[in-house]
Structure formats: structure tokens, C-alpha cells
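User: quick one, fold this
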Amino acid sequence: MNKMAASVVQSGEDAFRKIFKFYKRRNPPPDFSDVIDFTRGAPGGKVVTVQLDPAAVSDVEAARVGLQPVRDWKTFGLQGYPGFIFISNPFLLGSQPFWVRQCLKTYPQKPNACNLDMHMSPSDTQDIWSKSVHGLSFPPSAKRQEKTLLERLRWVTLGYHYNWDTKTYSADHYTPFPADLHSLSIQISAACGFRGFVAEAGILNYYRSDSSLGIHVDESELDHSWPLLSLSFGQSAIFLLGGTCRQDPPTAMYMHSGDVMVMSGESRLLYHAVPRIVPAPQGCPALEIEGHSLPSSVQDGAVVQPVSEEDWAVCSRYIQSSRVNVTVRQVLGHGQSFPETRSTHPRTDADQTVGHESADGLCGKRKRSSSCDSVDTAQT
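Assistant:
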């Protein structure tokens, strides 16, 4: 904590909540000088380098999903956070647009669930992308009467769909997990020493410039021995990583487009939050309008595919002011099954989506919220 942040925390108070509010406030703006920026690329202070096994993933397999060779990844950890791995944008130049397009065009499609389902019929949310393209084609300065469905999107669930009411997963609310995202996830997890990882559930969060994610722990998965993967695209965010209780003051760090976090081991069940979205630094590859051409190292038959100019025009317009976060988890241990419970159809709850209201409500009422993407808002 810097001196300014430390000054807002008093003995016996909820340190995490105080720091959360410090970085969330707009006036006066907070001091960001203590926020760790891994793009600086050199260890120091709490930042340490993490060595991965370059042979864990072949260069060909990495390139198939748009990743650089593992030996070229810039990988860090934090003192006091064993099991936490930060990979500073391991994506090949030109491959992020494919994943941005998937998050905006493909993954929100039915049968996957999203926050709009509680307000609209399945037919109305069948193709959020096509219903939004026209609205997003207007220049940023143009005034529009209503937000597009894509701009109203706050979360999407994949695979085992998270039940926001009961904070559980179940066998009876499942759709096939996207094969391309599974391929990306198993390469990242294998490079970090977790061979055999199975991507079974995903939650996508869609952040606007004034969105935030409340303080929570991801604990609904039945097997915590597998890591939680978090990928960011678009605008940057302040990420807070705390301890095992809310009295532990968190460490603040930037997450830029393309960055990947792996929470495993002792860091798997730590409190964390996103108090603020901040403008991405200049030159961020995913934000370049001409950045939709795939690199030559990506061969035919790869998972990542070229993005059309038409699609990228919509994607780039969206992420010029928004951030998409993807979290992937393995829910069950190998050979494990869900306990026998009475079937309950999950209700998507707009009260837990990324939004524009104060985080205090969720932080206070749901101290052990499960999803890395159960977000605090009162509106969609």
C-alpha cells in the first residue's frame, strides 16, 4: 500500500473494502503510483520472476491458439502469494482480435446464458451480435436513443452455467464448453504446470468504463486443486489481490489487454476484486484498428482464424471503451461428480452483473461470492 491508500485503512476495519473504495473513487482521483505494472518487465519490490517449462507446450501448439512460444512469455509472481502467476500478454501480435470476436460475437449466442435472459425471451437474445451491429456502426460521438444489446451485456456463462442464486454448478444446467477456448485454456494451464486441466465452466464479464467487480472468493468449484484462469481483452483494469480474510490489505496491479492471470495453490481461494477500469496504454495490440491480420506463424487448421474487416470494425469500436474478462475453471476433480440434489433451474440475477453502482452492497451482503465475475450492480 502507498501512503495515501494506507491512510484510509484504520486498525480493525475492513482493509480490503477501504482500499477498494480508494481506487474506485472519482473525485478526487486516486493515486495510482503504487499499482504494479508488469509491462515494465523487471522484477523488483514484491514482483518476482516465475520460470515455466518451455517444453510443456510445443511452439506449434502455442501458435495454434495464438500464443507466443512459452520460452518468450514474460511471467511473474508476487512475494507472499504462492501459486499466483501473471503472464504479461503472451499472445502473438494479431491474434487477440480473434478472441475478442469470439467473446463478442460467438460466446453470447444461445444456448449459452447471459444477463439479458431474465428480461428478454430466448428469441430476442438469440443473436446479440447481429442485433447490435447497426447501432455500433455509428461514430462514438453520435447520439443514439438506446444502447445495443451488446452494450447491455454484462455476463455470459459457458459449460456448467453458474447459478447466481445458489452459487453452485449443477449437472442439469450444462452446455458444451467452446472447443477453441478449451484449447487455449489447456495450453496455458499446461505451461503453468497443470497438465490434465479440463475447462468445464467459463464466465465472461463485460465492463464499461464505470464498471467494477465486488470483493469475493471463487470457491463454488468442487475441486480447488485446479487453477482459475483469467484473461483480459480491451481496456485495462485495476485488479486487487488480497488474502484469506477481508482484513488483509490487497495488492493492486494493472491488467492490460492480453494479460493472463493464473490463481492456483494457496492463491486459489484469495479475496480479489476489480474496483476500476482505466484507459489502455498507447500501442496496445488488440486496440489497433489494423490489428486483425493473423501472424505468419499461425498455420492452416489453427484454432485462431482471421477476423473480417467488418467484424473487427465492430469489435474495435466496442473495446475502445470497454473491457472483456474471461475466467475459466475446472469444476470437478477427475472422476468426481455432483452431489445428488433436487434439480433447480437457475435464475440469472442482474443484481450480480458488472454494472455502474457502488460495490459496497455486494461486498457487504455477499462476503463469499463465488464467481470471479459475480459483479455488483443494480441495473443492466
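User: anything notable?
Assistant: Residues 120-151 form one domain.
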